[in-house]
Amino acid sequence: MTTYFVTGATGFIGKRLVARLLQRPETSAVYALVRETSRERLAGLARDWPGADKLHPVPGDLAEPRLGADPADLPHLDHVVHLGAIYDLTAGEDANRRANVEGTRHLLAFAAAARAGLVHHVSSIAVAGDHAGRFTEADFDLGQRFGSPYHATKFQAEQLVREQPLPFRVYRPSAVVGDSRTGEMDKVDGPYYFLPAISRLAALPRRLPLAAPDLGATNLVPVDYVVEAMEYLMHRDAPSGTTYHLAAARPQSLNSVYNAFARAAGGPVIRAVLPAGPSGALRRAGGRLAHAAAAGIDRVPGGRGGRAAVLEELGVPLAVLPHLTMDVVFDTARTTTALYGSGIELPELRDYAAPLYRYWRAHLDPDRARRTHGLAGRTVLITGASSGIGRASALAVARKGAKVILVARRASELEEVRAEILAAGGTAAAYPCDLTDGDAVDALVKDVLGDHGAVDVLVNNAGRSIRRSVALSTQRFHDFERTMAINYFGPVRLILGFLPSMAERRFGHVVNVTTQGLQTDTPRFSAYLASKAALEEFGLTAGRETLSDGVTFTSVRMPLVRTPMIAPTGYRGIPSSSPERAAALVVKACEERPEILSLPEGRAAELATLAAPRLARFAAHLAYRAVPESAPEARGLPRRSAPASVAAAVTRLIWRHRA
């Protein structure tokens, strides 16, 4: 029976290799070094692995001497597989040295103490550095130089392995991309940095012929080839020190890499490549020009930071640019011979670029959340969803194909709305919450993100209205506090809770349901209009800050709507809109995302105020005098008829104006 000890078992290559080792009939145990923070992740991965009962986590860390583990606690180890490392060109020198060099040193000390049978070291073609020409599997130190801490530390790590006494083998994969069958990949690296640009070029006609110079070459291999080849080669007889290049025997030109992904994206391909002479001259001239431009920019204060920021926004780290092409050709003769008859062959990139692109587009494209148009497939959270505008809006967006998150205080009414959406074939979830309770709002955000991953659109609809004149409010400051709590503080707390995840996904939209009263300054609604004005202004201001993060805001200035909220106001006889028409405005705000959405009558009122501000103020005051108070406190006050009240107000204004 065979035992294995593996570092990097939860990594991109490691998890696939461990899964294959567990399925080997002769495997008795696989011991995986894991930090405490990774134990749960390993357990989650292992749930889907046949033979997972043979997997045993070993607490430890590459940063600790002998990994912080005691070899005496383990049986004899036939194979020690070292995959743990930093595979990141953007990481700094200290991080690379700690993980790649010191981590390897600690692993070798552990293996020596355990008297391991065979050490398998996963190195990299990065050890070739700036070598030009053929680099064989027997080559190592040819006087090459290294352009990054990653390249240098991978060389130093392999050197440590070669200098220690235990039997060993070395595997040098080239740039590893996703699975050639499923496209699965765990991070953006290598050619993935340029897929956003290729996806945008797909907007051009497919038949558009492109011409380009020879852009140089790279070397890519899919992860499934690396894992299958490594598992097979690990168990073949070979002398200590045998090295395998898990790479393409012929480097892939960047032109062919572009064409493979462009075809997958449905974009135009390069049909004409300039000959080597002109291509080389163009590359050299372009390189000199780019170097001169970069040097000029870097001399400007803040220039280098600005250049890095622009590249970061384009998805290409500054540290990656010098390593896009290579002049080295990796000889794979030993690997090819060893794999002969195994059925393991390196596929051509053109044959598996499509699944790589599809997986990237679905899971790794930083702008994937922005691609969906309309509401189908979106997650929309609506507050005040148990009745009125909120209920009608929830039903409307559900009909558009959105997943609706229903929020309100009353759980029973929320459940009725959810049941109605489900009965119509929609998707909905209900979360009872008192939006005036800050802790409850924070818990709501946490629960929704935990259950649904993200919220695409947040509709702040819940609110309360108070119709009471300022004269009757002098002893009722709590009215203003309560109104601000539900109309302003609750929505703002929700926005602040969801904003980080929206910015991270580069997409999010907030719909703040305000009121047409902001355009008319309707008397007796000072508490209500002030709270809605605060919410609208928050959205307008925040939207200017978050625009490049992909997070936008809309303020919907609703007219008077027949809902339970207006029942106490005494406006039941005044023309008002239906909840369904109001919901149509909410849907429009979600889909079109204007900054402010208002109706013609509201805009007309604004224009009238701008054209004749004194007359507008005078008319509003007379309307205030003509309409009686509806607040309970007014019942004991003397009342005048509407004509009498208006006449008195006009007289008072004219008489005092003359005074």
From TrEMBL:
Keyword Oxidoreductase attached: yes
Example of a GO MF term: oxidoreductase activity
Name under which the protein is recorded: Short chain dehydrogenase
Keyword set includes Mitochondrion: no
Family per record: Belongs to the short-chain dehydrogenases/reductases (SDR) family.
Originating organism: Amycolatopsis mediterranei (strain S699) (Nocardia mediterranei)
Ketoreductase domain sequence ranges: 378-564
Top-level taxon of origin: Bacteria
A GO-annotated cellular component: membrane
Lineage: Bacteria, Bacillati, Actinomycetota, Actinomycetes, Pseudonocardiales
Transmembrane segment boundaries: none
InterPro entries in the record: FAR_NAD-bd, KR_dom, Maqu_2507-like, NAD(P)-bd_dom_sf, SDR_fam
